[in-house]
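Deviations from the work plan: none for this task. Representative record:
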Amino acid sequence: MTIETVRSSPAPSANGATPVPLTETTTLTLAKAINAGLRQAMLDDPKVVLLGEDIGALGGVFRVTSDLLAEFGPNRVVDTPLAESAIIGTAVGLAYRGYRPVCEIQFDGFIFPGFDQIVSQVARFHYRTQGAVRMPITIRVPFGGGIGAAEHHSESPEAYFTHTSGLRVVAVSNPQDAYSLIQKAIASDDPVLYFEPKRRYHVAGPVSPQPGAALESARVVAAGTDVTLLAYGALVSTATDAALAAADEGISIEVIDLRSLSPIDYGTVEASVRKTGRLVVTHEAARSGGLGGEIIAEVTERCFDYLEAAPVRVTGFDIPYPPAKLESHHLPDLDRMLDGVDRVLGRRR
Amino acid sequence: MHTVHTGETPDVLLQLLSPEGVRLADADLDPWVADVTGADLAALYQDMVVVRRIDAEATALQRQGELGLWPPLLGQEAAQIGSARALRADDFVFSSYRENAVAWCRGVAPTDILRVWRGTAQSGWDPLVHKMATPSIIIGAQTLHATGWAMGARFDGADSVAVAYFGDGATSEGDVNEALVFAASFQAPVVFFCQNNHWAISEPVGLQARASIAGRAPGFGIPSLRIDGNDILAVTAATRQALHRARTGGGPTFIEAVTYRMGPHTTADDPTRYRPAAELEEWATKDPILRLGRLLDSLGLFTPELESEAQARADATAAELRAGCIGLPDPEPLTVLANVYATPHAGVDRQRAEYAAYLASYDLTGGKA
């Protein structure tokens, strides 16, 4: 292993890599948008290193880190042994040395061996040391179901992390946000859990090189007046489809992509609920102890007088993740979202 | 005679100093302490006397209600002082909560060592100033941090070394085993310094390890040494050898320093419930301070001046510690919500504002908020 010199200019893309820096709006899949964002972050800051299983020659099981090993070398794209606690724990040591590690957890369900290092160490160092030690660690996690996978490959563990103070939590839904927010996550001096909607990896969309949204801002995807529908990750697309379908029935749904799960942009959420008076929150994660309950409690405290009906949750069930042939029953789909909309409108009980 | 300590004979306990204070020869270790002078030995002796006094004073402060808890290092002075004094200022220590003598060697003010145990802060010092991380209370977690830091040192082309301190109990943790895998794979410049003090609270080392702990390291591809941890010369030599290997691209080393926790796990513990008194008596004869004193005596260096100077330093340090501890101010109320994040976080910021308003509304701030 040799010490790599840092490239100051982008490599030629003869290998098919995404051209970086992006100079104009380009159509990229969500996976390639993250790849482009990682490349840009690595070009911008020589202290950005990637750690993870199979992220080197293979480019990750989802190819999100494709071609980065060839460009940046093994000291910046580190194929690690198969140990999630060590991936996170060594990132802590690297952060102590001034690095900005980006850890890839191969699948959502594999994060738990690293859970202790995340909640007991990464999340707490800044508080523990009264601000002396920062942990600018980004933990990338492909999350969510809908891909017909085996157990432990379709989970939505985000609430464990939004419940853990000291962490920022982001879930992206589209290529543009994926590109912008991975760079903002890496640049953040706080640790960031960055959830990637794996079933949307191959959906393409325009990506502009503009700096994009702040790390903690929600986005109004579709304006509406009757019901506020909150979603994040893969379900933003479903919620947008639901809004289109509801429009056919004369129901105007405002769809909000939360993007940031910690902190939550309650300013945007509140403004919408004050307008619509009706709130539906949807996520794939289990209902009990999930983000939906927390958001609804907060919204109820903040704008009770504006609510026309009890808010509604459309979520995964309180079950272990089911077998692939049953997951369509578990995952909120367009029809279940519309059912939730009907309930908040008092059209169904 | 042991010529090679690269893991072939990890069951052998290496010594340079018998419990009677007799200097023993070891061809492999001797060169690493060949330059140790009488003045160096006297300084190590003073260090050990002072940290034992810090330990006793802190225990007394806990008994008097000034500290919530204290984890004594009594009996482990040679293992900690010998290894920590071998480090360079640019090396980085990742320790457990018992390495208070290591903190002393890293220049941490004694009062600062007590902050955590008085409950005024979760970290007594700035880790980046002293090149010593906040001690890990989660057992073994810090070995991964040390390994990551060492990986970074290697990426940087630096010759600084990370040192991970942990105990025999920690060797059962997954994190320690993962750290050994990563350190070996990346040939990270890290020294794994395991103080086998024979007890993990009430569990004897035999419950953690059926065979020698040092014997595990070669299975990871890491050379190891098993040394008498109450022998400060063997500790110094082994640590220097391991540091040199790490600095010169030779990768990690595992040192098992066999020592004994003469006190309780913490001041909340009662070892009489699980530990035979005879075992304690046996280990009392292997005391690290007595041992170095006997060597100094045999060299004609154990002078009344040395003794009185050591005592004076210990007394002064203890007085500083006591005054400093009692004088530590309680943190201001709103620091409970400070530094959760490095950059503004709307959720925590809101709770802080709400709590500030609450305190102000009832005049509960003590005039501080």
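The radius of gyration of chain A is 20 Å.
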